[in-house]
Design goal:
heterodimer; A: about 200 residues; mainly alpha; disordered C terminus; B: about 375 residues; alpha+beta; three-stranded mixed sheet
Chain lengths: ~200, ~375
């Protein structure tokens, strides 16, 4: 049901391998925003984020022949960006070493589409769901965000976050099982629910 | 396509038309397909509503990016990569200070070596290196008289793969301003990025300067020309004159897959492109994506690509697997990452030309 995100990117990747600036430009057009939104979850500095994104693409360009498969482009971009941002932040004098755990840099506040709520009962339920999700540990939220808003697969999430594949899968499962009680007639494949629906960004 | 009457919550969520229906107002759209469908099938309505509520509860609202954000990224990136290809000879005047300092340090080192040769201090550990103290600075010297490559760790985490019949020395700790090493022979360098401290390789009259890259320097004392071959990043090569007044030559910037030949007598630098097959640099990749890969396989791959011996206890690590990404870090940093990922009881040490992985296994 979900289109393979890489279907139309094979040609692009081939051109990039051959040294096409147009291909690089097209990749920048496609991914700069997504990278920026991800970056913003880690640091509130658009200028720093812009620098890191630029460096990421420059590095992609320099090392392009080292990427053997088109499926490596996206995890490469996100992994690279994440590291550059963390690296940049660590060099700042104001960086608190107490927060040196790289995993705690990710911050997101899932919001509610208030305008779509139909009635008060629904509002209560939606707000509870929202609260539950927002109270999840940061790592789980990051895994969920990467999965549903950046459409990364579990193995890609593992690479980007620098954790084991099993850990990435566990993060997602733990996140979603917190929501179980609010969906009484959940199916066996509950944990796969959001696997599909957050494959695309629904609200902008 | 699953029949609608069998839809579960996750099927709704996986249906793009359903998601679109939700974000366009759901049941408020009186004439929408989904509205009609759900009205006609009340037994499905509960599930659809649950799915809808999940969607509504997990919205992400992004603040708009600054104007021309993406355009700027594109412009700046293209500008930078075009600069990387352009030849930019720089003139010695701007190089003169490091050159002068380099000359004086080299003379001191040479003098020191002569003086201290009889009083070599041997470190009492696995590493058979020599410690020299010159002008108050403790130096480490590594000499490779074997027929294998010896991996050497520098104080900043950079890695040097020292070829046979080669010698390198460097301070025990790099200063705050720059990192300097002295080479005689051939070595492959992987230098950790540190924009605040440029990295210099001095090989007789040739100076190679980088911020964080990987490259090979080939500078045997008895050869008439030296070579620098760049694998990644950008490198600046210049000549330094031991005597004032000697002809100076413009420095050259090199980018990946370029090399420069330094003719010692003429003090000239000639740049050329490198055909991949010829380069003696390690055939390492720039992006390793290991997905639940056995640890033994990871070490084997690194050992093969860097052409160094890595010794592991197969039994202890047989069941360990890692998911990790390695990029352009120097070898020793890669090893550190892997060891840390395996577990707290794992580290590595270097004995002559072998890297030994000490491990207590991984906790599954």
């Amino acid at each position: 049901m979900l289109a393979n995100p890489y279907l139309d990117e094979s040609d692009l990747w081939d051109s990039l391998q051959n040294g096409s600036e147009e291909a690089l430009t097209e990749l920048m057009k496609r991914y700069s925003k997504a990278l920026a939104y991800y970056g913003r979850k880690m640091v509130r500095d658009d200028s720093l984020i812009q620098d890191c994104i630029q460096e990421t693409f420059i590095q992609l360009w320099q090392y392009r022949t080292g990427l053997r498969k088109v499926t490596e482009v996206r995890p490469y971009l996100f992994t690279c960006l994440r590291r550059k941002i963390i690296c940049s932040i660590k060099n700042r004098p104001s960086f608190e070493t107490a927060d040196a755990d790289t995993e705690s840099l990710f911050y997101i506040d899932f919001s509610i589409e208030e305008t779509l709520i139909e009635n008060e009962n629904e509002a209560i339920r939606v707000r509870t769901l929202n609260r539950l999700i927002n109270n999840l540990p940061k790592r789980q939220k990051e895994a969920v965000y990467l999965k549903f808003y950046e459409s990364l697969g579990n193995n890609e999430i593992a690479l980007v976050m620098g954790v084991r594949y099993q850990t990435a899968t566990n993060l997602i499962h733990e996140a979603l099982s917190s929501l179980r009680e609010w969906l009484p007639s959940q199916s066996l494949t509950f944990v796969n629910i959001l696997l599909f629906f957050w494959g695309t960004k629904i609200f902008h | 396509m699953k029949d609608f009457s069998e839809y579960e919550v996750d099927d709704y969520l996986g249906d793009p038309s359903f998601r679109e229906w939700v974000s366009n107002g759901g049941f408020r759209q009186q004439h929408a397909e989904w509205t009609k469908l759900l009205h006609a099938n009340p037994e499905q309505r509960e599930l659809a509503i649950q799915a809808r509520q999940l969607l509504i509860a997990t919205a992400v609202s992004e603040v708009d990016l600054p104007e021309k954000f993406v355009e700027n990224i594109i412009d700046n990136t293209l500008h930078e990569i075009r600069n990387l290809h352009r030849e930019r000879p720089t003139y010695p005047l701007s190089q003169s200070r490091p050159v002068w300092v380099a000359a004086s340090v080299i003379l001191l080192i040479l003098a020191g070596l002569l003086f201290f040769r009889k009083n070599d201090m041997l470190r009492k550990d696995l590493l058979a290196d020599k410690k020299i103290v010159v002008a108050g600075v403790a130096m480490v010297e590594k000499n490779n008289h074997t027929t294998h490559i010896i991996p050497v760790a520098l104080p900043d985490g950079s890695t040097v793969l020292l070829q046979p019949e080669s010698r390198i020395h460097f301070p025990e700790a790099f200063g705050g301003e720059k990192r300097e090493v002295y080479l005689s022979g051939q070595a492959f360098f992987e230098v950790t990025k540190d924009a605040r401290r440029p990295f210099y390789v001095f090989a007789n009259e040739m100076v190679t300067r980088v911020l964080g890259t990987s490259f090979t320097v080939r500078a045997f004392d008895n050869h008439s020309s030296f070579t620098v071959i760049v694998k990644t990043g950008k490198v600046n090569v210049s000549a330094f004159n031991k005597k004032k007044g000697q002809k100076t030559v413009p420095a050259i910037d090199l980018t990946p897959n370029q090399q420069v030949t330094f003719h010692r007598k003429e003090l000239s630098l000639v740049r050329s492109d490198v055909k991949k097959a010829v380069t003696p640099t390690p055939a390492t990749e720039n992006f390793y994506a290991f997905n639940d890969a056995p640890v033994t396989e990871i070490f084997r791959k690194l050992s093969k690509e860097y052409n160094v011996n890595i010794q592991i206890e197969e039994k202890l690590l047989a069941d360990c697997a890692l998911t990790t990404t390695l990029m352009d870090e120097p070898l020793f940093v890669k090893l550190k990452i892997i060891c840390e990922a395996i577990g707290p009881g794992t580290n590595f040490s270097v004995m002559n030309n072998t890297i030994i992985i000490n491990s207590k296994g991984c906790n599954q």
